[in-house]
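Need residues for this backbone.
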């Protein structure tokens, strides 16, 4: 997705997930400063509304859409609202993600694992599942998916128990 010939995003529509704070909010504001209409999507209604208000204070146009990105129906509804209000979708920034405390795998609950996978992986799939057809239909668009640096950095964890058959020492 390239900016307009004048170097900005005037009349482009950007969809930003986890836009209630942090990187998502900063990205939504950056798109607005460059002239884009912004759909701020987040599960946090208060933060979401605050981001939309900040965009409007910059003179931009924004809508805040409550969206649990782990639920396909929420993602589809948010994108449907973007099309209803702005008529098209030019760029999507799939930014939602979650971390966990550094925990030994054996101590991690299945529920926590499922929560992390749902937010960090399933949400990207669901967003792209509904964004791609919109962009293909109009013949253009760009999608950016963010991820954490935790995916490329290992953490040293000392094992508390070692199988005697492995001959490991403590």
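Answer:
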């Amino acid at each position: 997705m390239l900016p307009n010939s004048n170097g900005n995003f005037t009349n482009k529509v950007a969809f930003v997930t986890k836009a209630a704070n942090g990187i998502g909010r900063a990205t939504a504001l950056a798109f607005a400063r460059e002239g884009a209409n912004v759909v701020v999507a987040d599960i946090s209604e208060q933060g979401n509304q605050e981001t939309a208000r900040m965009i409007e204070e910059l003179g931009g146009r924004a809508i805040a859409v409550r969206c649990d990105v782990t639920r396909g129906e929420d993602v589809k509804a948010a994108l449907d609202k973007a099309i209803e209000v702005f008529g098209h979708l030019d760029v999507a920034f799939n930014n939602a993600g979650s971390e966990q405390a550094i925990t030994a795998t054996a101590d991690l609950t299945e529920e926590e694992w499922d929560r992390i996978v749902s937010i960090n992986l399933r949400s990207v799939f669901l967003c792209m599942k509904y964004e791609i057809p919109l962009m293909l239909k109009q013949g253009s668009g760009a999608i950016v998916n963010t991820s954490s640096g935790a995916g490329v950095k290992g953490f040293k964890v000392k094992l508390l128990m070692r199988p005697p058959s492995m001959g490991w020492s403590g």
